[in-house]
Specification:
mainly beta, about 20% strand, 3 strands, binds zinc ion, about 0% helix
């Protein structure tokens, strides 16, 4: 489970958060604000861009098509089986 560093935009508090989901919004433990920004520990110079720019999920293999063949979309025709 990855641990990310966050900074609170409201009170400038920095904290670490265990992240279960990539788009989970961290809550500041100091003031309870959700206006937090993720810090990339490896490359902090470009903080402020889109949060999904360097997401490892973007490089993952594409999702399976769902099992359908070119003749159907549900995977239930004779070609599929
Ligand atoms: Zn805060």
């Amino acid at each position: 489970m990855p641990i990310f560093e966050y900074v609170c935009k409201k009170c400038k508090n920095q904290f670490e958060e265990l992240v279960f989901s990539q788009d989970e919004q961290a809550v500041c433990p100091s003031c309870g604000s959700t206006r937090t920004e993720k810090l990339m520990s490896c490359c902090r110079s470009k903080v402020g861009g889109g949060p999904n720019m360097d997401s490892p999920a973007a490089q993952a293999s594409p999702a399976p098509s769902g099992g359908g063949c070119s003749g159907c979309s549900g995977g239930s025709c004779s070609t599929c089986h």
